[in-house]
Amino acid sequence: MKSCCQVKTTQHLLERKYFLIAIIWTLSITALSLISLEGRTPSLAFKNTDKVVHALFYFFFTFFWSRACKNKKVILIMLLAVLYGIVIEVLQTTITATREADFYDVLANSLGAFLAMLVLKVINKNL
């Protein structure tokens, strides 16, 4: 049986792991969103595949940051993810020559963040 200190140490290590993953994930989204990917991405079989990718990226963005923050204020983290997605879309239009903002990307990002919030609420309720 684990002692209280062992459990707290394990929890702390998991939170640190999620914090590191959240930072790496955020930096990856930023880089992938602001560099030109023309001719470098594979063509996918069905229409609007990029919207599914956007939703997945922001699902995990919200999930990782919520876990890093001990699942506190999940709604706030979801709203920050949506805001971050909007900022990235604006930056695509203003600082890149090959990318442009897309309202449907913002919707996909928001949907992914919202779904993560719902999943986290269910997980936290069952813990």
Automatic annotation (TrEMBL):
The UniProt record lists the keyword Transmembrane: yes
A Pfam family per the record: VanZ
InterPro entries associated with the record: VanZ-like (IPR006976)
Ranges annotated as spanning the membrane: 18-37, 52-68, 75-97, 103-123
Keyword terms of this UniProt record: Membrane, Transmembrane, Transmembrane helix
Domain VanZ-like stretches: 49-123
PANTHER family per UniProt: DOMAIN PROTEIN, PUTATIVE (AFU_ORTHOLOGUE AFUA_3G10980)-RELATED
Name of the molecule in the record: VanZ family protein
Species annotation: Flavobacterium chuncheonense
